[in-house]
Amino acid sequence: DCSPMPKPSFNSRIESDFLTSAPNLSKCPEPKFPEVAFAGRSNAGKSSVLNQITGNKSLAKVSKTPGRTQMLNFFECKAGGYLVDLPGYGYAKTSKSDQIAWQKSVNEYLSFRETLRALVLVMDIRRPNQEYDQELINWAKESDLTLHILLNKSDKIGTNKKLDALRKTQLEYKHWSNVSIQTFSALKGDGRGELINKILYWFGDPVTTSS
Q1: Nearest Cα to 49, choosing from 186, 194, 197?
Q2: Which of 84, 145, 168, 200 to pair with 118, CA 20 to 30 A apart?
Q3: Is the Cβ–Cβ distance between 210 and 114 less than 8 Å?
Q4: Which residues contact 2 (CB under 8 A, 6 or more apart)?
């Protein structure tokens, strides 16, 4: 079959611009658009994932020192929603007081942000389900929050190991109704279309806030 490859669809990327940074829930922008939040350990590649799906390599700064993101960072999307980059966690060089402050702001946001539609948890496919990951997963379950687990850095391992990691994670959460799982490569873009389509689906959920 020598037919040409199909052209990328309109959702080959999510065009976004930086909006603002907030230290806590009270400083967040007015809740008027659906939001999808991104969380993960400081070395899981969360910023690179955001840069990959937006097609903007400098949107979320990729720092050589993990853990620099200490605020809730909001990006406004032309598709009609916000992407929210939550502070990274689990990096040893940050102080306990900083970790507690970040955790409090993240917990408040996840618990009380009425326009939050889903949480994307970025994990290194070679080291999934670390202690902090489990805490966030349990939090999402108890809060009945839609959770999408992204097994990032799939380019670092072979195809068989990638499929094994995916199956193992799917088996672990097979009884959870509001959890979906996929493999992803922020470096190569593998899995980008699947993630983008999910985000656009969540953005399509209209916002009804109490005024």
Answers
A1: 186
A2: 168
A3: yes
A4: none
Helix (H, G, I), strand (E, B) or coil at 173: coil
Over the stretch 130-152, which tens digit does the pLDDT of each residue have?
888 888 888 888 888 999 999 99
* Residue owning tokens 């097979």: 174
Q: What is the pLDDT of residues 3-34, one digit of tens each?
A: 443 333 445 899 999 999 998 999 999 999 99
DSSP assignment of 51-114 equals HHHHT-TTSS---SSTT---SEEEEEETTTEEEEEPPPB--TTS-HHHHHHHHHHHHHHHHH-T
Q: Which residues contact 38 (CB under 8 A, 6 or more apart)?
A: 46, 49, 50, 83, 84, 85, 86, 119, 120, 122
Mean pLDDT of 182-196: 96
Computed from CA positions of residues 55, 61, 65, 70, in that sequence, does the dihedral angle turn out positive or negative?
A: negative
Residue with tokens 């005024």: 211
What would you measure as the largest C-alpha separation in the chain, in angstroms? 60
Report residue 112 as tokens: 């009380």
The single-letter DSSP state of residue 33 is: S
